[in-house]
Design goal:
Elements lengths: L1 H31 L7 H151 L13 E7 L5 E8 L4 H13 L15 E6 L4
Antiparallel strand pairs: 1-2, 1-3
Amino acid sequence: MSGFVRQFWPYLLVAAIIHVALAAFLVINLDRGVLVLPDEAPAEAIEATVVDEALVEAELERIQEEERARVREIEAQRVEAERLAEQRQQEEQRLQALQQQREREATQAEADRVRREREATERAAQAERERQAEAERRRQAELARQREAEAEAERKRKAEAEAAERERVAAQRQQQLAQYVRAITGKVEANWTKPDNWPAGTSCTVRVSQIPGGEVIEARVVHSCGDPFLNRSVENAVLRASPLPAPPDPSVFAREIEFVFKPGG
């Protein structure tokens, strides 16, 4: 409407002046009680004015209708623009949501990839630890086997050494015992008086009981010479040989000792 007023204000001003003049004329004539019609010229002017006012009003109505149409068009354009803006906004939101979804999926995919790589690395590390542990167990088992073999070899060596030592000690003891028995036999034979009827090659086994120092407690023939008289002669010889000779080693001494008496044997 402001644009309309600025465009047609001269016409409106003229129409307003004519209306004011006409109103003043009517008021003056009514006060006199006489209504005087103006000349032909004023009537034509009034008619022209009325015609012009009708034209103006028609033009004004047309302009107003156009203005209303433009307003409706602008409103429709505004509504359409808002609809399009809302549609664009919805599309942007949809695209943004889609982009966010894709970003979340990409982030999740990356997280899954990192997780799978980490799990693969952990599995590989675990497998390597198990492999090293198994290798260490095998190494320890091999070391234990070697130590056991070495210990077994050492035990065998010690057993063999101990057996050899026992054999050596036994042999040495046997030698010392033989030497001890020869000494006893020699002393007994030295104290023995050979009977006239002693057969050549005769022998007997004598058991002697003694105490430390060699003193004879008892002498008895356990395997006969073949004659009681001969047996007594040997037993008397053992008693006369007391104390018996000392052993070459104290460990050889025995309270009871047996020896074969075979004179000249």
